[in-house]
User: What shape does this take?
Amino acid sequence: MNLETLYTLLNIFQVSVLAFVLWRLILRMKTGSFTMVSVFYLYALILFVLSDIYWLVHGLLRPEVRIPFGANEIGEIGIFLMYSSLLNAVFKKEEHFKELLGATILSVIFSAAVIALWIGWTGEWVKDILSGLAFGYFTCTVINSLIISRAFDKKRLSILGILAFVLVGLQGAIFAVPDNIGKILDISCYCIMFGGMVWLFICVFKSLRKAYRSTDGGMDENIKKKALALSFLLSLWLQNTLYMSNEYVYTAVFVVISINVFVGYFAVATYEDDAFIRRGGV
Amino acid sequence: MIYSENILICITMPLLIALFFTKENTRRFLVAFLMGMLVCLLSAYISGFVNYLTGIGRDDMAVYYSPVIEEIMKLLPLLFYMFVLAADENRMYTASIGIGLGFATFENCCYILSAGSMNLTYVLVRGLAVGVMHLVCSLALILGLNLSRHFKVLSVAGVIGAISMPMIFHGLYNLLVSEEGISSYFGYSLPLITALLLFIPFKRMRESAGN
Assistant: This one.
C-alpha cells in the first residue's frame, strides 16, 4: 500500500470518528446538555470534519494538484480559533494578567520559532504565517488556561516549556548540521514528541478519571476546568507533533489525533450545565 | 459578454424605490438584499483582480480563492451592522439571510443571462444548489457570529472562527462540482441537505432570541 492510499484511508477513518463524536455530542445536546462548551466544541468539530472531507475530496478529484492557501486552510485556522474561543470563555484572564504575562511571551516566542520552521520546510510564507498566527494564538490560550486552572504546577510547566523549546531548537539545528547528525537529532525530536505525548495522555487520563469520579451531585468546577485545559494541551501537543512528523510517523500521529477527539469529547462532556459560566466563569 | 453593472442597476431600481414604501423588518430585509447583490458584484471584481495577479486560472480561482473572497465580502456588511449599528440577534439573522439571498439572486441572474436558460435541469441546479448554498453559508456565518456574541467571546478570533465555517463549506461545494460525474451530484445535493439539517438549530436559536 502506498502512502497516498494510506492517507486516504486514514482520512476516511478520521471522518468516521468525527462523525460518530458529532452524533454523540448532538444527542447529548438534544437531551438538554446545550452548554456553551459543547456548542463551541461542536462548531470546531464540524469545521474539523469539513476540512477533512475537503482534503479527502481534493485527494480523490485532483491528486496531482497541491492545495494552495484557500478554504481548507481557513477551516483549520477556524478550528484553532474556535478552540481558543471556547477556552477564553471558560478561563477569564482579567484577574490573572500579571501571572500570565511571562507565559504569554514565551508562548509567542515558541510560536514564532514554529512558524519559522514551517517556512523552512515548505517555503510557503503566506500560508505558514497565517496558519501559524492561529496556532500561536491557540498556544497562548492553552498555556494561559493551564495557569489559570492550576492544572500544572510550576515544576510541570517548566518541564513542558523546556521540552517545547528543546524540540524547536533541535528541529532548527537539523537545518545546519550534516545529514548523519541530522538523523540523530531527528530521532531525538521524535523521542521528545512521543515521550511528551505519553506523559500528557497520562495526565489527561488521570484528570478525567478524577473529574468523573467526583460526581457527588455535580462535579467540582475546578476539576472540570483542569481536565478541559489538559485535554486541549494534549490536542496542541499532538497537532505540533503532526506538523513536525514525516511519512509513516505522520500517519501514526494522525491516528492518535483521531482517537484524541474522544478525549476532547469526554472533557467537554463533564460540562453538564454552564451555570458557572453564566455567573462569570473562573 | 454581459454587463453585470447594468443588470444590477436594472434589478435594484424598483427595490430602491420600494424602500420608501416599506418599513421595519421588510425594509431591513430589502436593504440587506440590495447589499447582497452589491457585494456579489464587488466580489466578482476582486476575484477577477486576484485571478489577474496570481494567474491561477478561472477554474482554480473558483475552487480555491472565490469562496474565501465571497464569504469575506458577505461578512463585512454584517460586521458593520453588528458593531456600528449594534443590531440584535434577530435583526442580524434577517440581514444575513437578505445578504445571502441577494448574493445568490444576482449571481444566478448573471449566470443565466450569460449561459442561457434553455435547459430546465441547469436552471433547477442553479436555483437549488448554488442559490441554496449561499443561503446556507449565510446561516452558518450568522450562527457562528451570534454564538460568539451570545457567550461574550466575540473577538477577532471569534469572527474569523465564525467565517471559516461558510468558507470551508463553500470551498467544498465548489470543489465537488468542479468535476463532472458522481462528485458533482453530491455537490449539488449538499446545500439542500444542509439547509434541512440547519432548520432545527435555527428554530431553536430564534426561539431563544425571541425569549
Q: What stands out?
A: Chain A touches chain B at residues 36, 39-40, 43, 46-47, 50-51, 53-54, 57-58, 60-62, 65, 67-72, 74-75, 77-79, 81-82, 84-86, 88-89, 134, 137, 277 (CB under 8 Å). Residues 274-282 of chain A have pLDDT under 50 and may be disordered. The longest helix of chain A spans residues 179-213. Chain A has one domain: 3-271.
